[in-house]
Amino acid sequence: MPIQNRILLAMFLTVPGFLALGLDEDKEAVELDPFVVVSTGTRTERLAEETPIRTEVMSPELFLSAGTRDLAAALEYLPGIRSEANCQNCGTAEIKMLGLGAGYNQLLFDSQPLFSGLASVYGIEQIPTAFVGRIEVVKSGASSLYGPGAVAGVINVLPNEPVVDRQRFDLSWESVKGETFASSSFLRDWASAAGETAFSLYGQFNDNSAVDLNNDGFSEITEKQFYTVGSQAWLYPSENGKLSVNYSYSWEERRGGNAFDLLPHASQITEKLTHNWHRGGVSWEGFAPESELRYRIGASLSHVDRDSYYGGVGAVALPGQDGFDADLYSAALEDARLLYGYSKTKRQFYDAFFSKRFGEHDLSWGAQYQIDDVFDEKRNDLGQPLRSDGSVADFSGQDPIADGDFTNLGFFLQDEWMPSTRTTVIFGLRADQHSELDDWAFSPRAALRHTSSDAWTWRASIATGFRAPEIFDEDFHIEILDDPTRTRNAEGLKEERSTSYSVGFIWTPAGGENRLQVDGEVFRTQIRDTFNVSDIVLVDPDGNQFKLRENAGGSVVQGFEINTSYRFNQHFSGEIGVSHVDARFDEANEVLPGIFERRYLETPKWTSVAQLRYENDNFIDLFLGAVYTGPMIAAREVEGTLNRRTTSFLVFDLTATKHIHLQAGSKELHIDLMAGVKNIFDERQPDLTSGPERDTTYFYGPRFPRSFVARVGMDW
Fold this sequence. Notes:
The chain has one domain: TonB-dependent receptor, beta-barrel domain (Maltoporin, Chain A), CATH 2.40.170. It has six helices and 37 strands. Strand 19 and strand 20 (441-451) form a beta hairpin.
């Protein structure tokens, strides 16, 4: 670790101690808030301290103070979660939770799984924080309520239902190695005086320049233009019913590689992607007073289509470069122009949930039906569909790379028993019939919460889950230049089955005036018939390159997490969280030709996050954040070697926000002025590969270098 990081880390850990020396002078009692209402873990509203399913909550205040613009950046400050970059060309990012990749966690929008296929690959950067009311995160054991794919946990993005009329506008600017990132967002809320209707309209617009981190003429951070607009409405036509409707549309175009002034296929390497993402839903929540039955019935739809290009002329010199050969370049163009593509995914989701109280028991039951359509085909520079051999097809869909329909019908039953205010016990069972499985998949779970004293609360859970052998989000990600390489399922691929265990505690010492809270958890997830994608490039009879997803026996992901929060006085508060993960297969797998490894790739054993905040509305707010990522194993696919111990990283972010309050008649105008530095010491991968034939997937560590950020926000 560089000496400057050691110094700043010491300052980070010791400054709160000096501040605490003056604690006795601050007579005002300052408490952590234990009264947050959460719903994701059990699908019934409970105080956070009362639910057996540990649920962490992220608020918009963190997004504003830390200067985050999207979901991927916001989640970086949550212990046990990493936003990881996967590719130098396209800049994809995935969320890893408790050592497991994106395919093992469920991303929900207002409790609906609208992130599927292409949305899972690119969508976490297409969810702006402008409209988010809060984010609830459940780590491990959510599968019996949310179905396939929730083995590692659930991330639920929840909007804020307006209660007053308000509007907010934000404009931010960021300088990243001399290149400019600009962003603007707006939020308009309406709420009727009687409370029978509420409406939100929001939008966000981003424009990012490409960034070349190692000065080789090829970008590591993509050029990207993005906008999203959306609306949400809440209607109360009766005293015991609420209708919710939402719709949003996102458009994004990103390009990485070199020679941005040329057509994609005329460059040495380009990955260019254009996404159109429609998502929306409608739900009815009701309460029947005569039977005390609560219910929610909903339907939602997500549709993503993508025009793509991945390729180029490779090492062939471009016009104007040394060694340019017109004939060689012309021949390379003929092959490069055939590397365009078109993909689309559509998800329909229908959900019915019921809950009724029987004495000490809250009984919940329901059904869900999910339909996924997946399509992917080659095209040329004229937009014509191609057969696998490169010839022009007669019609779209004649010879696609992927064309699949998957359905899942699930039923669940849950009993939440509270024999006393100190104890809650949950038993749940989910049954799923997936179109890729011959038999029903049954997923039971149990959880316990017991408060043994005013200071100690204990939690324990056991849960089972599965992942069906369908087409996955990473199958859409192209990696190798010479011939686009994708991932295919092996013949007879079986579903993964998982069993997760966790034991944890919350300690809030009575003598600390609720200023201090420590929580910890030990977890273990056993996976049978683990999916493993070989890094060995195979070739089918048509000459297409691909990787193979196979069942690789069992694997275990286990570890622990310790988090501490402390409020020193009415202005200063701090948090620090440390996570340890050991993720490995039962037997070594061949990850590269002739190279076997048991440990999961790109999964650091140690990670940590910390925050120190000074909040003074009459003066200034300060935010100091730190994210530590320990060494990991990374594959150099082009070289055919493993880096068995990458560099560790300690990233510091520092921002300052000034609040200005103005009175204009009966209205108040609030202005926020923020400035800061992210990744202060420019921590990033030291061994990036270079040139047109670089290893684009050998890409790890912080997603962005040092950058300077400024933001102005107005709320009235």
